[in-house]
Amino acid sequence: MTTKLLILGGTTEASALARLVAAEGIDAVFSYAGRVAAPKSQPLPTRVGGFGSADGLARYLRENSFSHVVDATHPFAAQMSWNAYNACQAADVPLIALTRPAWQAQTGDRWRHVSDVDGAVATLAFSARRVLLALGKQNVPAFEKTPQHHYVLRLVDRPEVAPDLPHHTVVLARGPFDVAGDLALMRDHAIDVVVCKNSGGSGAEAKLAAARELNLPVIMIDRPDLPPCDTCATAEAAVDWVTHTRDT
Ligand code: 3Y8
Ligand code: NAP
What we know:
Elements: E1 5-8, H1 12-24, E2 28-32, E3 46-48, H2 53-63, E4 68-71, H3 78-91, E5 95-98, E6 110-114, H4 117-122, E7 130-133, E8 150-155, E9 168-172, H5 179-188, E10 193-197, H6 206-213, E11 217-221, E12 231-232, H7 235-244
Parallel strand pairs: 1-2, 1-4, 2-3, 4-5, 5-12, 6-11, 7-8, 7-10, 8-9, 10-11
Helix pairs in contact: 1-7, 2-3, 5-6
This protein binds ligand 3Y8 and NADP nicotinamide-adenine-dinucleotide phosphate.
């Protein structure tokens, strides 16, 4: 069977892999969920939108004769990762996850770990604060339970419907972010607590360095459980896996 790769994308690492795969001339398709209005263009044929659960993905793999899948989605895209794991088992297609290590607290960090978004809300149940919510728009409604805070919402696209938060400011921005920009954002908005996911990688890390410099507390949402598939840490390793792993 000839090599044909499906990249499940949406991260910096996925874009690095796409560039390498295109340069190597490997037959591949890049896949976005369609979460933002104008996703970054890729140097590969690109599809946008869900597959219709794991069964839909298994059918897509078989019908399009894919020989390999690299799951390069975000560590919080757990549903997609579990679907990829189950679909690749059903379709008998090799799968590897291109992951990045979780961030670790450094000297001077004031992190409070919580297990999910609801845990982050629960830690904000007290007196009014000025909160930088750097979680994307899907997670904003959970904070309607704690409306006493002023939220600065950093989002990729302007929400179609204004968030139901009495005190909030929307800041439209797409990463990767830098420390100077995140320091200015936190100072301009007098932020006194940051809420974020333990995404890892470099694209979203600047806010941690800015919080450290300003001695701000960070509510850190730990990663969800991900499937027990093989993993690699670099785009180069993923390409090496594709070229040296035959489909079974
Ligand atoms: C649609 C496709 C690249 C990829 C760039 C990375 C870095 C910049 C930092 C903050 C944190 C957040 C969010 C974030 C970052 C990279 C990466 C990353 C965090 C784009 C993109 C898509 C998405 C989806 C979007 C989510 C949201 C999450 C914003 C492209 C720009 C908060 C995750 O408005 C929404 O509904 C946004 C939804 C899923 C998390 C959420 O749950 O809401 N990413 N982000 C992908 C698709 O359709 O399949 O245009 O590039 C990609 C990137 N965003 O190639 O350079 O690698 O992570 N993305 C988080 O980490 O907490 C922002 O503001 O500090
Ligand atoms: P998710 O909750 O795990 O996935 C929900 C559903 O969205 C999946 O079941 C699948 O639909 C579809 N989907 C997700 N990623 C897809 C992809 N790359 N290609 C095709 N369909 C996809 O995912 P999410 O957290 O919403 O993330 C969506 C996208 O944003 C992913 O590409 C991810 O890498 C990127 N992203 C997410 C975050 C984050 O914080 N979650 C951060 C940065 C980037 P079907 O079941 O119909 O197949």
